[in-house]
């Protein structure tokens, strides 16, 4: 099947970042997914793969994409590239995430040469950017379908249209649509599940592209979330991770007084053994949530609370809406309410204008909080965001030097955070076989990766393990009979 390259953009739905920035006060409707009969068998006898990059939100979306493809008759292929449909679910949060994707697209050129009927699709956050879709049209002619974060539910029609028209289909919506419930899902794991509780982000941190690519904050109805978790319990799931760009803002758009802390309390009653959530924004983390973490047995004693910087001036220019002291007060509250809580974070270095002194404030904060783990990043300019216009005088060497210094500090506390469990008995949800033969691994309540001698029949169960040794990135232990 030969796809024409048409420069007539009128027929495409192209992204528009300016439109995506707008926040319109409107009720977000919830609708139920419904597959039209005519699409049902278009994948019969064909295979698919979904390549996923980026955050857990994308992993959850890819489970829906896989679910939809299987509902059309496609079967999961045994290779990543040699399939009738290959969908690449992309991340736009930093330039190096995007560069990876351009590399994958280059690689798929060959697969398409081998099989010209193959459909290559690209979706997720990258296509929400105008410059990306323009580059796709100019240079990546092997792409057949382009869709975004707001219209995964239309995938059956998009695939059907590209088959029928023998043409590319580009359909990226710049503003969020309705919340679509009941989409099919092919979950990647049998005992741990992602559960979206809200979509979008209204924070507009000045460096971040996400509020543009994922639209305004929309919370799912609490009953839809609770019913999803109840059915996961009945299917034998042990752990759920509640997902949202800023889960602490859950419910604020619904104006019914029911917020994230209430949801935790209700989910605790469903019988699910473990609840985790990500990601939190310090500004929206309220006492009700901390209280729920302290009292609900199933809510795990771990929080990922991105701080981004330890300097007030930088935080202000990042539009984070809290100060270093306010962050530290939150940490104290968490440590007091949930003794032993594990705290992890995200930190950006070399934000435009960050001085050496301001960077030192970040190091001091890291030393003070002693994070159990941190994702550390060099600031990456994202076109269309306010910070991309700020002047950044640092050289690449200086940026990397800051990152290296920061990582030296954060790494010190990884090991300390692990050492505090040596001699203690923890509960582990066994995830998979470990790299070392005869060993299995999984996460403890505090999100510590635990390796121990055990049979793979334990995978999916909760077991008690005594920790015997702390390494930097994981701990070792032995099964307690
Ligand atoms: N540059 C570097 N890091 C970024 N993040 C988000 N946007 C950028 C950017 N432009 C980081 C933040 C966020 C995490 C998911 O990615 O630390 O918390
Ligand atoms: Fe991006 Fe800030 Fe929203 Fe997180 S809270 S997704 S960093 S804008």
What does this structure look like?
The chain is α/β, with parallel strands linked by helices and 481 residues long. It has helices at 17-21, 56-71, 95-114, 130-139, 155-165, 210-213, 222-234, 260-268, 287-295, 312-317, 324-337, 356-369, 396-419, and strands at residues 30-32, 47-52, 75-76, 85-90, 119-124, 145-147, 169-171, 179-181, 192-196, 198-199, 218-219, 239-243, 274-278, 302-304, 342-349, 373-378, 425-433, 439-444, 449-453, 462-470, 475-479. It starts with 16 loop residues before the first helix and ends with a strand. 5'-deoxyadenosine is lined by residues 93-94, 207-208, 306, 308, 346, 348, 377, 379-380, 382. Iron/sulfur cluster is lined by residues 201, 203-205, 208, 210-211, 245-246, 281.
CATH superfamily of the largest domain: Methylthiotransferase, N-terminal domain
What is the class of the largest domain in the CATH system? Alpha Beta
| Basic shape | globular
Instruction: Provide the β-strand percentage band.
Output: 15-25%
Which descriptors would you attach to this protein?
481 residues; alpha/beta; Rossmann fold; Transcription Regulator spoIIAA; six-stranded parallel sheet; five-stranded mixed β-barrel; 13 helices; 21 strands; globular; binds 5'-deoxyadenosine; binds iron/sulfur cluster
Write the layout of secondary structure elements.
Blueprint: H1 17-21, E1 30-32, E2 47-52, H2 56-71, E3 75-76, E4 85-90, H3 95-114, E5 119-124, H4 130-139, E6 145-147, H5 155-165, E7 169-171, E8 179-181, E9 192-196, E10 198-199, H6 210-213, E11 218-219, H7 222-234, E12 239-243, H8 260-268, E13 274-278, H9 287-295, E14 302-304, H10 312-317, H11 324-337, E15 342-349, H12 356-369, E16 373-378, H13 396-419, E17 425-433, E18 439-444, E19 449-453, E20 462-470, E21 475-479
Parallel strand pairs: 1-8, 2-3, 2-4, 4-5, 5-6, 6-7, 9-12, 12-13, 14-15, 15-16, 19-21
Antiparallel strand pairs: 10-11, 17-18, 17-20, 18-19, 20-21
Helix pairs in contact: 8-9, 12-13
